[in-house]
């Protein structure tokens, strides 16, 4: 199993007061430390306009910056909100940053779930999934053939001889491609088109097992070209993670902050995202979350829960996630304890040595 960290550039107002510029230095420090600790991937989440969530208007600009600050860790968009973009510009930028990072880019895309982001950029929120499905075909033409002639409902453009799409990436014909899925429509489409699957922090194991089963069935229908995606068949599941010496200590240090944070995903600003991608209602408790979606506790507790999840879902990667409210010192200690006490249980010795180097 591989291990990545999902970074939302979410400010902690106590440490990063308005207008929260300091969140970017803190996030960068965490990514540099994640590389040193042996994590495989830094996933960068795009978000716009929020005063109480992530501040990341351009994943590609940040990944290019990180390419010069790191040397080994993979740099992934987690995710690009595709309906907010011209899909050809997404292809160009992914290819370019792949060159700048010497082949370390992974491209995650999704349809988005925050209506105010679409309103702010003048895009149609209700039509977002149709936009993604049109954009994906155009992107595959650009990646594989470097030319295209497309006149669709949402996008149009032509690149014909003697012109072609450049630059081309280090990872040919394209970097590993992932799609975030939370509904049967998006998960099925992800599988049929050969994307790696990214699943939310919010569903419980029963829901995850059903979602991954659907993905695997639909993946079998992918065309030969799309099944060549290096990420095809990869299942990346995000979880809220916090490691302490004991389960009781983990609870004491996180309970109030994590319950408050997850409740946010049931609000109008997220179009009821909590209920649409998981089985959860509006009333949440730490005990319920611990039984369904948190990987909180001692290393031994988390290893056991993660083994169960791996067995039930066939997951290939864990994306660690956490809110900013624990403070820098506790967050960094949790990441270090996870790297030292949990990751070795899921890696062969040779992989551990390579990661350390």
From TrEMBL:
It comes from the Bacteria. InterPro entries: Bact_Lucif_Oxidored, Luciferase-like_dom, Luciferase-like_sf. Keywords: Monooxygenase, Oxidoreductase. The keyword rRNA processing does not apply. Pfam families: Bac_luciferase (PF00296). Residues 1-314 form the Luciferase-like domain. SUPFAM superfamilies: Bacterial luciferase-like. The keyword Ribonucleoprotein does not apply. This is LLM class flavin-dependent oxidoreductase. It comes from Reyranella aquatilis. The lineage of its organism: Bacteria, Pseudomonadati, Pseudomonadota, Alphaproteobacteria, Hyphomicrobiales.
């Amino acid at each position: 199993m591989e291990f990545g960290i999902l970074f939302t550039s979410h400010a902690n107002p106590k440490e990063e007061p308005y207008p929260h510029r300091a969140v970017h230095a803190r996030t960068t420090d965490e990514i540099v430390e994640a590389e040193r600790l042996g994590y495989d991937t830094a996933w960068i989440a795009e978000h716009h306009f929020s005063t109480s969530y992530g501040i990341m208007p351009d994943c590609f600009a940040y990944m290019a910056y990180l390419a010069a600050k790191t040397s080994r860790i993979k740099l992934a968009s987690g995710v690009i909100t595709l309906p907010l973009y011209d899909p050809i510009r997404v292809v160009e930028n992914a290819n370019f940053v792949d060159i700048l990072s010497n082949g370390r880019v992974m491209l995650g895309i999704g349809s988005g779930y925050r209506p105010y982001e679409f309103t702010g950029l003048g895009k149609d929120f209700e039509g977002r999934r149709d936009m993604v499905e049109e954009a994906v075909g155009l992107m595959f033409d650009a990646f594989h053939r470097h030319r295209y002639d497309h006149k669709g409902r949402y996008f149009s453009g032509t690149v014909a001889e003697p012109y072609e799409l450049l630059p081309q990436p280090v990872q040919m014909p394209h970097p590993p491609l992932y799609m975030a899925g939370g509904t049967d429509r998006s998960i099925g489409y992800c599988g049929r088109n050969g994307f790696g699957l990214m699943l939310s922090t919010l569903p419980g194991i029963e829901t995850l097992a059903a979602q991954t089963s659907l993905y695997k069935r639909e993946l079998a229908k992918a065309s030969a070209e799309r099944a060549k995606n290096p990420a095809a068949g990869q299942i990346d599941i995000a979880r809220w993670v916090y490691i302490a010496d004991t389960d009781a200590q983990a609870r004491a240090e996180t309970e109030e902050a994590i319950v408050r944070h997850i409740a946010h995903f049931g609000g109008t600003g997220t179009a009821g995202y909590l209920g649409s991608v998981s089985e959860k209602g509006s009333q949440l408790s730490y005990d319920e979350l611990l039984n369904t979606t948190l990987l909180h506790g001692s290393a031994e507790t988390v290893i056991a829960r993660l083994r169960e999840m791996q067995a039930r879902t066939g997951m290939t990667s864990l994306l660690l996630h956490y809110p900013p409210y624990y403070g820098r010192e506790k967050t960094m200690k949790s990441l270090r304890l996870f790297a030292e006490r949990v990751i070795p249980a899921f890696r062969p010795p040779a992989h551990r040595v390579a990661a350390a180097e």
